[in-house]
Amino acid sequence: MKDEDFYKSTLDIIGSSCELAGIEERYRTILSYPRRKLIVNYPVHMDDGGIRMITALRAQHNDALGPYKGGIRLGCSVTEEEVTALSMLMSIKCALLGLPYGGSKGGIIANHKALSKKELERVCRGYIRAIYPVIGPTLDVPAPDMNVSPEAIGWMLDEYERMVGHHQLDIITGKPVELGGIKGRTTAVAWGGIFVMEEVKRIHNCDCSTFAIQGFGNVGGSIAQILHEKGRRVVAVSDSTGGVYNESGLNIPALMYHKEETGSVKGFDKARDITNEELLEMDVDVLAPAAREGVITAANADKIHARSVLSLANGPVDMRASEILHDRDIIVIPDVLANGGGVVVSYFEWAQDREGYGWSGAKVSANLKDVMKKAFRSVNDASKDYKVDMYRAAYLVGIKNIVQAMKARSV
Ligand SMILES: NC(=O)C1=CN([C@@H]2O[C@H](COP(=O)(O)OP(=O)(O)OC[C@H]3O[C@@H](n4cnc5c(N)ncnc54)[C@H](OP(=O)(O)O)[C@@H]3O)[C@@H](O)[C@H]2O)C=CC1
Ligand SMILES: O=C(O)CCC(=O)C(=O)O
């Protein structure tokens, strides 16, 4: 899917949710624009002595509910349309989850795979210097997204603190635990998805025994590992190079080692290489797209054979595809609910750092479960009240919550 199509499909779901909820036209108009976009170009010193100009941005969509919140995505295919649409999803996600945040997203256009570690550090530090005027602990709190590790977040924290001249742990989340990070942030998206999936299983009485997972990074790798430990059968996973399949279930720890050694999941012992397309069309109980947006559209929705789709990536299923899947009795657990665990635990990290008192892993896990179950209930209730599928219900609840906050501010 092209990024302009992802942007358009995000506007479509905002528009149709407003219509369904009977929300006044002016709020639809407001929500169809980001409040602010900062585009920056900054020089980075390369190891060979030259400089390279890096283009990056921060899109801030809506802050009626609180400070803007959202991750930073790094990659050569990052675009303004993509980051803007992702900032809109963040506003809706935070509102649905009941967090006191608005939505934003950052993007750095650079090929992370072609940078040395020192160059990557300079790119990350330069980004914070460049967007410094628009971030702050009660203004906009960044976090990780694709290709941004806790180590990179640590460099960004350090750069911000050098600029302001004092410690400020609540400026960014997803930090290494030894640097004010919170226990469980790296597995938070996966656990949040599992908590929601268990609720869906309970209500819809569906099977969740076999899994195909697209993406084997922070989100896809974590959920594959957790499911493997729980004794579930992860039969297929993929990364940007392609995928692997084993009907009896993949040995995930061994596959992680293989990926670390070779840079790819392909070529793994006792598994057959497959394409990303084949993975999406696999006959499994749960398909979990955990990589990129726009992978299930009207063009391939009728080829999906999974019984349910756990949308761990942002925007993997567009609105038209969700309708086709719904008509085919395939349950779509929408992204703004399924992957909400990341920002929920980021919120706990922010609260921990503002309070200056560390949370235990058990407290993180129990609170995450509560928030995810509550959000699921609100989606399930809206789904019954409005007689719509979970996908539409989730967007509707999130948007209604933002609009209520705007009204309370007399916007
Ligand atoms: N990290 C977070 O806190 C959150 C992330 N998300 C969303 O989850 C998704 C994954 O993020 P995250 O795991 O953090 O990112 P990572 O960078 O850690 O991992 C991304 C994974 O996706 C793979 N990938 C990239 N492009 C493709 C492609 N075209 N086809 C198949 N696989 C591909 C990568 O392959 P390779 O290893 O070969 O590079 C990698 O395995 C994104 O949509 C993100 O926005 C949502 C909520 C929070
Ligand atoms: O943890 C956060 O603050 C945001 C994570 C994120 O970017 C997302 O949920 O898409």
Helix and strand topology:
Layout: H1 3-21, H2 25-31, E1 36-45, E2 51-62, E3 68-75, H3 80-96, E4 103-109, H4 117-131, E5 140-144, H5 150-164, H6 188-204, E6 210-214, H7 218-229, E7 233-239, E8 242-245, H8 252-262, E9 272-274, H9 276-280, E10 286-289, E11 308-310, H10 319-327, E12 331-333, H11 335-338, H12 341-355, H13 361-386, H14 390-408
Parallel strand pairs: 3-4, 3-5, 6-7, 6-10, 10-11, 11-12
Antiparallel strand pairs: 1-2, 2-4, 7-8, 8-9
Helix pairs in contact: 1-2, 1-3, 1-14, 3-14, 4-5, 6-7, 6-12, 6-13, 12-13, 13-14
The total strand number stands at 12
* CATH architecture descriptor of the largest domain: 3-Layer(aba) Sandwich
Helical segment count: 14
Ligand set: NADPH dihydro-nicotinamide-adenine-dinucleotide phosphate, 2-oxoglutaric acid
> What is the CATH homology-level superfamily of the largest domain?
NAD(P)-binding Rossmann-like Domain
Radius of gyration: 20 Å
What is the distance, rounded to the nearest whole angstrom, between the alpha carbons of the first and last residues? 34 Å
Mean pLDDT: 97
Structure class: alpha/beta
- Largest sheet entry: 7 strands, mixed
Number of domains: 2
* Approximate strand percentage: 15-25%
Oligomer: single chain
Please state how the strands of the largest beta sheet are arranged side by side.
9-8-7-6-10-11-12
Helix amount, in percent? 40-55%
Unreliable stretches (pLDDT < 50, length at least 5) are none
